[in-house]
Design goal:
This protein is about 5% helix and about 65% strand. It has about 325 residues and is mainly beta. The chain has a domain of about 60 residues. The strands form 11 sheets. It has a 3-stranded antiparallel sheet with strand order 1-23-2.
């Protein structure tokens, strides 16, 4: 803040308080000159420098002018056809005579006469219903037969028995329990008779043919077919009259000569023309100011009176 105040003060009183420095520093938007302690710089605005020069300015550009030379005419006589040569047709009518001639009214032709067919009624055996087949289902045939079934097969089992102990040596102190004797006994197989149904003939299907059924009916039969007979008819004529051209119509032409008259006519001897005239451009000498060096601002080191509240030893802060 102090530095900015110092720069503003130097700019206002630059003529009386500061002396011009020998070195200029260009003004930068983001920096100021690097100043040491005790140095002062002021912002100077240097005016633009101009020089005067003369130049040629075109007042009127070069142009082309045309001088019109009028056409020349003279009167001449000329023979002009008023009506061209023509022809007038003179017609001579045709001459006719009447003559008779045979006219065929109807030409020779052949007509066909139809002979109707002859029919007779006869008896005919007609099939009313066609032969058909019907499938008949025959049930299976069974018979009853007997067979033996083993109810209990032969086996060996232990059975309690009362026995007297013989052929066995034992001491007198040994006691034999009388109800503790068992014997292995073979038990024969046991059978019983049973019945069952046995299929003698399996179930099957047979086709039963139902014969066709016929009836006697009367039928109209053509004995002789329809025919036709051709009959030739002669041509028929009649007498008619007609006009015959003896001499055809003719045309002859009568020539009508052309008509002329003399007229006076204005004729162009020499057509209108133009002559080209070149007019040069016009110039004037004028002066103008040319800028040699534009106005600019620079920093210059100056000898200024130091403010009392600023220390020389302290470096200047950059804003």
């Amino acid at each position: 803040m102090r530095c900015s105040l110092l720069v503003l003060l130097c700019t206002v009183v630059v003529a009386g308080a500061c002396s011009a420095a020998s070195e200029d520093f260009p003004v930068s938007a983001d920096a100021r000159p690097n100043a040491a302690a005790g140095e002062c710089y002021c912002l100077f605005t240097l005016p633009a420098q101009f020089r005067t020069e003369s130049f040629q300015e075109m007042v009127k550009p070069a142009r082309t002018s045309w001088d019109i030379i009028p056409a020349e005419y003279e009167t001449r006589s000329e023979r002009v056809m008023v009506r061209s040569e023509g022809r007038r047709p003179i017609e001579t009518a045709a001459q006719y005579r009447t003559e008779s001639y045979p006219y065929k009214v109807r030409g020779e032709r052949t007509i066909k006469e139809k002979i109707p067919a002859v029919y007779d009624v006869v008896a005919e055996r007609v099939m009313v219903e066609k032969e058909t087949k019907r499938t008949v289902k025959l049930p299976a045939v069974f018979r009853t037969e007997e067979y033996r079934v083993c109810v209990s097969p032969a086996r060996t089992e232990w059975r309690r028995s009362e026995c007297n102990v013989t052929n066995v040596s034992y001491n007198s102190d040994t006691r034999v329990e009388g109800d503790a004797c068992f014997c292995a006994v073979t038990v024969p197989a046991t059978y019983e008779t049973r019945t069952r149904q046995v299929c003698v003939e399996k179930e099957r299907k047979i086709e039963e043919i139902i014969p066709a059924r016929f009836e006697m009916r009367e039928k109209r039969v053509c004995v002789h077919k329809e025919s036709e007979r051709k009959i030739c008819m002669p041509a028929v004529y009649e007498t008619r009259t007609r006009q015959v051209c003896v001499q055809p119509a003719s045309v002859r032409y009568q020539v009508i000569p052309a008509e002329y008259r003399t007229i006076e006519k204005r004729v162009c001897v020499r057509p209108e023309s133009r002559r080209r005239i070149e007019i040069p451009a016009e110039y004037q000498t004028r002066t103008r100011e040319i800028c040699i060096a534009p106005a600019r601002q620079v920093w210059r080191r100056t000898e200024c009176n130091m403010p009392q509240n600023v220390s020389v030893e302290k470096p200047i802060e950059k804003q």
